[in-house]
Design goal:
single chain; mainly beta; left handed beta-beta-3-solenoid; three-stranded antiparallel β-sheet; two-stranded antiparallel sheet; 13 strands; 0% helix; disordered N terminus
Length: 141
Amino acid sequence: MILAYNKAGGRELTGLTKRRQEERALFLTPVPEQVKTGWQQEDGGWRFYFRDGSGKHVVNAWYHDEDKWYWFDGAGMMVHDTWYRYNGDWYYLGTDGAMVKGLQTSGGKWYYLDDDGRMATEPVVLTPDQDGALQHPGLRQ
């Protein structure tokens, strides 16, 4: 990218590339913008840009990437290290932003998050098997 002086208006123009033709005339042509895709670190956090070339990122939605679920807030920033309430259920988003599942400690307390990441709010019965490992329907192995 170059900056060029516009003799007519005296303003600098950006996003132009210089090219010369045989007559040695100078032409300025627009440079196509690079479209962001995938994970991008911006504004002190992380955003995920769709890979469809639209340049749009995930906003106020869950996004599934490489077998993990992530929540993005209204500014499109990945939420992490916190509890998040969605549609009446509580989810815990870990340090890496991924939804946590299974047994989890937070603030010195134990929580059970099911296979969909929802915090259990009803009593959960855990029973040991013959090896002493805790068993519960839906408990991740």
